[in-house]
Write a structure and sequence with these properties.
Organism: Streptosporangium album
Protein name: Threonine/homoserine/homoserine lactone efflux protein
GO cellular component, one term: plasma membrane
Subcellular location: Cell membrane
Order of helices and strands: HHHHHHHHHH
Keywords: Cell membrane, Membrane, Transmembrane, Transmembrane helix
Largest sheet: none
Oligomer: single chain
Length: 213
Amino acid sequence: MDVLSSILSFAVVVGLLTLTPGLDTALVLRTSLLSGRRSAWGVVLGIQAGTLLWGALTAAGLSALLAASHLAYEVLRWAGAAYLVWMGAQMLWRSRKGKGDADEAAASGEPGNGEWWSAFRRGLLTNLLNPKVGVFYVAMLPQFMPDGVPHVVMGLLLAGVHVCEGALWCALLIGFTGLVRDWLRRPSVRRGLDRLTGLIVIGFGLRLAAQQQ
């Protein structure tokens, strides 16, 4: 398999994965609807930075530790599950108090650097603390490594393809929410969205905690 064939084949696989509704989609939609485009792009860039880092770690052979070491996998799995449950619980608590992210953004105009970095950190940690992403790369990347190409370079290139597809899909999501944001940012709808997303995030955390290696 040559480099071009490897890239195209990998693009098809991760393209289908990207279009499958999941935690990343829920976070991007929720942030775009309640906090605006700038914070949503913070989440998107955080997620994609995590993806690129997983690709680099896998190509360097470091994340193979997750597949080989039960202890390493369990530590990361429980840390990720705890983080997701904590993040979902925060969303539920804010909706109960009626003080969601949108209220903070409305009070200060466009989200500042603090809100952007908070969104970026949320996306990055959500991705990095999910051992399933690392195991996916450990399982998939070797199948798309052509002979004669340095593994680190090819791993970064394939992860870059994943990042580009993810960013494009998220751009479409953010564009869509821009069309309906005025209606969806009503107080009652905001609280409902925060509760729904909080429950989804907690559900992903509980599912991660229940899964075995």
